[in-house]
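Bumping with the actual sequence this time:
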Amino acid sequence: MQEQAASRTAFRVALRRAAHQILDDPRVLDDPIAVPILGMDEEAIVTAAMRPGEGGYSTRLRAYFVARSRYAEDALATAVASGVDQYVVLGAGLDTFACRNPFPALRVFEIDHPATQAWKRERIAASGLTLPASATFVPVDFERQSLEDAIAASSFDRARPAFFSWLGVVPYLTVEAITATLRFVGAGAIGTGIALDYGQPAESVPFTERIALSVLARRVAAAGEPFRSSFTPDAIERTVRDAGFTTIEDIGMDVVNDRYFRGRSDGLSVAGKTGRLLSAWRQS
């Protein structure tokens, strides 16, 4: 992302999550904060989220964004049921979970670039929303600062297990930065888990999808946030296991559709083979 500017891709993702609340029924992700945090009326949100000429691509992208958030929050609920009481949102953007946290004992730590966090605080204040006492903002630039040092300065308890979500971030980081973050998380207490999404290399997906991926790559690069990494499932599994995780689930869009979009009458679904969702746990 650009040095002094809030993330433009974070805004695009937030637009699509908000549009899901307006356009889709039933909702895959029920998020009553997604619309008010943007400070825009519903018509403006839908217009901005549905770019001219994108058609079905825009709808599928909206489905992907809400599905990955739902996937992470489902995994978090499993963690909380097992006694985890710390949730760390890496690269939080305008994620709203901290404002709608349904778990009274759960502390939420949002980790993000200082400029994006300042922008988010402005949006929360302008929308009349309240950041609960259970939420803590921890500023960090993943490429230039140590996550370990930043989080150590907060009230996060390294001796207790935690659950981490890392959505929409991995493709924008170098492999070295990704590996370092995974090793930090994987060295946590037994019971620690993480959910993330990642993209496969262009040569691993069908030609037509490769074209769409190229268009998206040019778009995010023009926004100052270029793609920097991709993994095959085998490669990321090795990276995750080397970081200390012992149990891994890695799913493609066919499984996502079966889990979150089956039986819909509106046809909302995800597509393609590039994006994948992964959760991992340190159980020993």
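The tokens above came from a reply further down the thread. The first strand starts at residue 86 and ends at 90.
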